[in-house]
Amino acid sequence: HKxxxxxxxxxxxxxxxxxxxAEEHDKYSRFFxxxxxxxxxxxxTVGLFHVAFYSRETEFKTNVKRGLLGVCCxxxxxxxxxxxxxxxxxxxxxPLFWRLVAGASILYLMVLTFxxxxxxxxxxxxxxxxxxxxxxxxxxxxxxxxxxxxGVSMPLPExxxxxxxxxxxxxxxxxxxxxxxxxxxxCFGNLQGAIQDEFVVAHVLGWWGKxxxxxxxxxxxxxxxxxxxxxxxxxxxxxxxxxxxxxHIILDVLTCNLLxxxxxxxxxxxxxxxxxxxxxxxxxxxxxxxxxxxxGQFSPESWDTYHWDALESPKRLLVVILTxxxxxxxxxxxxxxKFILWIPPRNPLNTYRLLLWxxxxxxxxxxxxxxxxxxxxxxxGHHAWLGGMILITETMIWVKFGIAAxxxxxxxPSSVVISWSIALALFLMWFAxxxxxxxxxxxxxxT
Length: 447
Hints:
By secondary structure, this protein is mainly alpha-helical.
């Protein structure tokens, strides 16, 4: 939806009512009438941090009461944000759809807040009651269901993708691509098994969606490469992060992730060059034209790419790093939550979360992009605030429960610590050279 960096266009948030009200008050009371999204985000973070790490665990009944109180506080904190219910930055297929996305995000935040007040055992038990497989919403196998039965949690079997990293596994009579149902022997059995895994399609679709959120092919691919390093850094905590070298490099970075990003980039290019000539349905004479117009309602009204300009200034680079770090943390939380709450990877709850995050993420990143690049936008935005609070709450859940269950107690390997330390040192050196040493030299030459 068209919104340029220099000014407001269609789809941007409504008038800054809070700022207009602030101008009507004197300098001593003006502070209390201005929108303070970041202050509200900090307040919620401090409250959740105290609950997660400084409150004593008690019996289930008391934790439920505290959880309900925490849900009320989270909802009232959101209600304290200025302006009425948020006007979405997107208008298609209908503003009502994006209001429902915001409402679902609020509900998800309240559910996460309630879980944060529970013990790890009670949280694992409560998750079994909301399992779509056990509530008749989905027909699932026993492996996909959460727990042994409703109300009885069950740990997940440890699965590692790095047990056998051989590339060539077949003998002299093997086939490059074997039909395993006929008993044929594959030459690259491990590689063929990984390609036939259903998570290959999930990788492609996931990075197609993230390409639409970031709207920059190079930045999206860089994000995918960094996440592979994140997986290697945390595989001592979560066994399913352990992968073979060819899985990290060939299947993920160079195949699935790159394919999804390229498809997303081509889709964005088609949206950008497409001519948008919208007419009212009543003005279209043919039934076929009316049908195509209805389908077109589910496409954007217009399209614009993001110009992050990361090297424009130190502030802009830090904003871009913060954005990419939040996307990486969102991906990491998906693995950490299902690991600590014992949710099977194929359970529909994981799909629901990813779909909600994709819809919310498009609005949140759009708002944060406008907030950081458009000087006329003075506040963060409801969707970006919701995304930040949900991200923080998810992180606190797996950190709190991981410590309580003694899951994340193994120290980081020295190779991981040394590698990240070297990377950070090189980045700081480049940062100082690019933004301070080079400009100072140019100034001296001019003088």
